[in-house]
Every structure is written in structure tokens, then in C-alpha cells.
Fold:
Amino acid sequence: MIWIEKGKPIWLVLLILVVGSNFALYQTAIGTSILPDESKFVVLGSLFDLILIAPILWMLFRKQFSWKMAIALIAFSCIGIRLLIPSDLLAPFSTITLAGIAMEVLLVLFELLLIVTLLRYLPKIIQEVKHDELPLLYTFNTAVEKYVKKNFLIQMICSELLVVYYALLSWKKPIPNGITLYKNSSNIAFQVMLINAIIVETLGIHYFLHAKWPIVSFVLLILNVYSVIFLLADIQAVRMNPVQIQQGQLYISLGLMKRMKMDLHNIESIIEDRAVLEQKCTKDTLEFIARDFEKVYPDFILKMKQPQKATLFLGKEKHYNYIAIKSDDPVRLKQMIALGMGSNPAEYK
Structure:
């Protein structure tokens, strides 16, 4: 797949050329002037470009290949074709575009079915989570997957449910014991500053925009309210989820943006060389380093034997070979990790 990685920008260029040339052909005066009287084969070529070539180029550009994505892209292309190509030219091929719309409707119905299933089993999921010793941040998605098929839409909904819980329902819960990542940083102060800035911006700009562009004002208001709720949830998620080690697993998170359940036996080594720690982290390194007003470096980096899965924003999953960590008690954390690896913790004092 190296050729796909190296040629990544070219796929986007080709996609723009394919879509742009077809747009120019049907939606500009120059394009319509060069259309032949017998345009059936031209339209057929456009259908081939937009239904087959464009989805392939998009998947090559994103490096994501699946039948579900292919069907969704084809269905979306069919809907776009009906908007792009004049109805009189598209009439001989209306069956093709209607089939694409039907596929899109079926996909939407399938997603709705998953949502209904999630709501149906939500009481059982909540009960399972309550009886689990691990924090909700790690157990909720696992409990959901027992009852609902894994799906990106479901992952997004679960992420939003976690936002609601941490922002509104978790403030009376006791803070668990464990090694924290944020107390020696300005992370929470930084989040509070952002919340204050958003509130001031909302009060100052909303009134001005509402008089001239009420729709824009309303949309920005909704986004700002959600941003405040998310930041509050992120602050509470940081406080409520210190680093824990249970049954050979390291549970580490930094708010709602990144979290990981790591098998300690999958750690190959602990890197402590300052020259390495102060270098710029590579793309296959996940950083658990709280934001600060000054430049900070990790206490150590864990090198994995096999790529380790992490859960990121909106439930997106990605694998990393290196995990960079900065904690409030690095010596103790390294000793705990070393014990879990089966090493001699005295090596890391």
C-alpha cells in the first residue's frame, strides 16, 4: 500500500478534476454550448465518472476501504447527479439514480434501527456499567458493543452521552484515587480560560449578529453552548479518571479526547533518554501530556511490541507504536508499569 500513501495528494487532485470537469460541462455556459445534440453517451460517461471513479478516488484519498463506505458514496453520488445533470438529459438513466437514492434510504433506515436498538438496551447497559469497578469512560462503549453492532454513528452517540454524563451528572461523584496527569500543569486553568472566552464572545457577538443575520447568530449560539458543555465535561473527565492498573491492564486517559486500555505485557521497553524525550513526537506516538502554558516533555515513552489501540475524539479508533506520558508522579508510575511488565522496578528508580 506504499504507492497509495506516497500518491495521496494526487487522488484528491484527480477527484477535483473529475467532479469539476463534470460540473463545468453541465452547469456553465461554455460546457452546455459544447454538448452534442445526441448527449446520451456523454451523460453515460459522466455517470461512470461520478458513480464509480469519484468514490474510488475518495477512498484512495482517505485510505479507507469498505463495502459500506462504497455503497454510501455511490448513493451520495446518485443524489448529486440529480442536482448536477439537467433532468432532460438524465431522463434515460433515471432508474440508476433512483436506485442510488433507494440505497441511501436503506442506509439511513439501518442507522435508525441501530439507534433504536441502543435506546432499547440503554437501561441494561447502564446497569452493567454501574456494577463494573472500572470508570465509566472505559466501560460504557464495551457494554454498548454487547448489545449493539459496532458502528461509527453509535460511537458518536456514545461519545455524546459521555459528554452529557461528565458535564451534568458527575459533579457529586467522589474523585477516584490514582496517579493524575494534570495537577502539575495548567490544563484546567487553560480550559477555564477557554470557557470564559466563549461566554464573553457569545454575549458580545450574539447581539450584534442577531440584528443582521439571525440564522448565523442562532447557529453560533448553539455551537458556543455545546463548546462550553464539552469543555466542562472534558475537565471533569480529566479529574475523574486518574491512571489505573488492574489485572495487567493500564487504563490511561486525558479527558474525552483520548483514552487507552493497554496490555502491560505488550510494552517492549520504557524510553527515558532525555534526547529522545525532547524530540518532536512522531505520527505513530500518542501523547498523554496535559496542556500547559510552557513547553513540556514526556517523563517517558512506552515502546509497544504490537500497535496499541486508542480511542480518540467521537469514538474514532487508531493504533500507535509509542505512548508518551507525563504524570504527576512519574517514578511511581514507572515502577507500577515495570512490575506489570515483569521487570525489576528498581531499574526505574
Remarks:
- Residues 278 and 295 are 10 Å apart (CA to CA).
- The chain has a mean pLDDT of 83.
- Residues 94-130 form the longest helix (37 residues).
- Residues 176-349 form one domain.
